[in-house]
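The following record pairs a protein chain with its ligand, flavin mononucleotide.
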Amino acid sequence: MKRITYISRITNPLSIKEIETIGMISTKNNKQVNITGLLVFFEKLFFQIIEGDDEEVNRLYVKIGKDPRHGDILRIKTEHGINERLFPI
Ligand SMILES: Cc1cc2nc3c(=O)[nH]c(=O)nc-3n(C[C@H](O)[C@H](O)[C@H](O)COP(=O)(O)O)c2cc1C
């Protein structure tokens, strides 16, 4: 498995509702592909950790990277060959 940690900045103001929707859709989609992690929003920044099978994590990271709601994506860490999740549920 693999784990990616990044931060990014919103491109335009987002309402609480829009942020909640991103969280809800992420939870639903990630469950289907067995990706776990953490998504935090503070000030104008997102902080996210995604972990799971290499291919799924890669695919998701590309998809998230194309989302116009954020930019200035800074990948903090990529961990390869992990065999334990930080966020098992
Ligand atoms: C900061 C940020 C984090 C996101 N994280 C995820 C995620 O973990 N999983 C996910 O499926 N979508 C995530 N998204 C949303 C995707 O970019 C995309 O809008 C969504 O997956 C599309 O869902 P759909 O294919 O069900 O329409 C994130 C978006 C942003 C802005």
